[in-house]
Design a protein that fits this description.
The protein is built from five helices and no strands. It is mainly alpha-helical. The longest helix has 44 residues. The protein is rod-shaped.
Length: 209
C-alpha cells in the first residue's frame, strides 16, 4: 500500500505551458467583464445634444415662470396697498389739522412704490439674464420650442410694459399730492352774515342836505 507524501506537492503551471495550449499570451488576454456591463456597453447611445438642450430648456422655463409669478405677486400687492393709502388720503384731504398725517401717507406711498419698482426691475433683469444664457448655450441641433412664447422687440415701447408703468404712475401721483396741497392753500372761510337788526355801512342811507 502506497501512502501519499506529506506535505502534498503543488503543481506549478507556468505561462509557457498556458501559451502552448492557447494562441494568446496571458498578459494580453482581456480581463473578464460582468455580463451586465458587457451587454450594455456596446448598446449605450451617444449623448444627444437635442435631448440635453431639452432638459436645459425645461429648467430655463421653470426659472422664467418663477420670476413671472414674483412680478404678478408684486404688482397685486402694490395695487392693493396703494388703494388703501389713497382711501386714507381722501379722509384727511380736507382736514387742515391732519397735515402731518397727509405727508406721512405721501412718504409711505412713495416708499412702497419705489421699493416695488426696484423689485420688479430685478425680476425683469433676471429674466433677461436667463434668456441670454439660453441663447449663448443652445446648440444648432435643437429644433424644439423656444423658452418663451414671444420675444419682444428692443424698442422704446418696452418702457410701457405694466411692471414698469404702474409703479412709476403711483410715484408720480404721490409726488403731486404735496404740490396740490400747497397750491390749494387755506380753504376759503364762509362769509358770516351780520347779526339781525345790524346794518352794514354800505346799507346805511346817506344823509345829504
Amino acid at each position: 500500500m502506497v501512502y501519499p507524501s506529506w506535505p502534498p506537492r503543488l503543481t506549478v503551471i507556468r505561462e509557457s505551458q498556458i501559451m502552448a495550449t492557447t494562441d494568446t499570451p496571458l498578459s494580453v488576454r482581456p480581463k473578464s467583464v460582468p455580463k451586465a456591463m458587457s451587454a450594455n456597453k456596446p448598446n449605450q447611445p451617444a449623448e444627444n445634444p437635442r435631448l440635453a438642450n431639452t432638459a436645459e430648456a425645461a429648467t430655463i422655463r421653470d426659472m422664467i415662470r418663477h420670476e413671472d409669478s414674483l412680478i404678478d405677486a408684486r404688482i397685486n400687492w402694490l395695487v392693493s396697498s396703494q388703494s388703501i393709502l389713497f382711501a386714507a388720503l381722501a379722509f384727511v384731504w380736507n382736514n387742515q389739522s391732519a397735515v402731518c398725517l397727509l405727508y406721512l401717507l405721501v412718504f409711505v406711498g412713495l416708499g412702497v412704490s419705489s421699493s416695488t419698482f426696484l423689485g420688479l426691475m430685478d425680476s425683469a433683469k433676471a429674466i433677461r439674464k436667463v434668456r441670454g444664457w439660453w441663447d449663448d448655450h443652445v446648440s444648432e441641433d435643437y429644433y424644439g420650442p423656444d423658452v418663451v412664447g414671444l420675444r419682444g422687440r428692443d424698442t422704446s415701447f418696452r418702457l410701457f410694459k405694466p411692471w414698469k408703468v404702474i409703479p412709476l404712475v403711483f410715484i408720480l401721483a404721490w409726488c403731486c399730492v404735496p404740490i396740490a396741497n400747497y397750491l390749494r392753500g387755506t380753504p376759503n372761510q364762509p362769509v358770516q352774515s351780520p347779526p339781525t337788526g345790524v346794518t352794514s355801512a354800505a346799507e346805511q342811507p346817506s344823509h345829504q342836505p
